Amino acid sequence: MAADGAELVRRWRKGDPLAFEALVRRWQGPVLRILTRLLGENELVEDSSQEVFLRVYHAAGRYRENGAFSTWLYRIALNVARDVGRRRRRRPGPLECHEPPDRTLPAEKTCQQREAAELVAQALGELPEPLREALVLRHYEGLNFEEIARLTGTPASTIKSRFGVALQRLRFRLQQLGYSPEETSS
After folding, report:
1. For 150-172, how does the pLDDT look when each residue is reduced to its tens digit (9 = 90+)?
2. Residue 49 neighbours by CB distance under 10 Å
3. Would the N or C end of the chain have less CB density within 10 A of its end CB?
């Protein structure tokens, strides 16, 4: 299998009925993670994830195999998140924290990390959509600025700027919420 699913896409487009199921299994986690960080509401995330894979299914003929499948899939997920945001016509509420606890840490430390994650999720949910997208795709998904630029159709310099502004606003909002990284680092 190709690292990002291109081989599965080829098999699926040639009529292999199990290939699409394998694509969904392979990419469901990353899609849910992106949508959770962009949308925050659990019901919306589940429905939006289904919408992403439905769009992938219907758009298989438009996938160009010269590009990375992950970029194509993330673009669809980003478009679905944007569509949901437009339909809601309001700022998203605080994002929910879905990070699993680190079982190797003492309970007190795990609780502190959970509280910190919830504050970060809240502050992230308050960012405007373009800033939140840049931060989520760069920091949480590990995409570089050029990949995000291709994904969003926005110049890389703009993405870099949005990322920097998002970090500043996030840091400022976390300070307002009383979060100090030193609390969880010891």
Report:
1. 989 999 999 999 999 999 999 99
2. 22
3. C
Give the predicted TM-score (pTM) of the model: 0.71
Three-state DSSP class for residue 99: coil
Read off the pLDDT band of 91 (50, 70, 90): very low
- Please, how many CA atoms are within 13 Å of residue 120, restricted to the half-sphere of its CB? 18
33-85 tens-digit pLDDT = 999 988 876 778 999 999 999 999 888 778 777 778 888 899 999 999 999 88
Burial tier of 34 (Cβ tally within 10 Å: 0-12, 13-18, 19+): buried
Amino acid at 19: A
The pair of structure tokens assigned to 33 is: 């993670």
CA-CA distance, 132 to 33, in Å (whole number)?
14
Residue 58 parent element (H or E) = helix 42-58
Alpha carbons 125 and 132: distance in angstroms, whole number: 8
Find all residues with CB under 8 Å of 8, minimum gap 6, and list them.
Answer: 1, 2, 19, 20, 22, 23, 26, 69
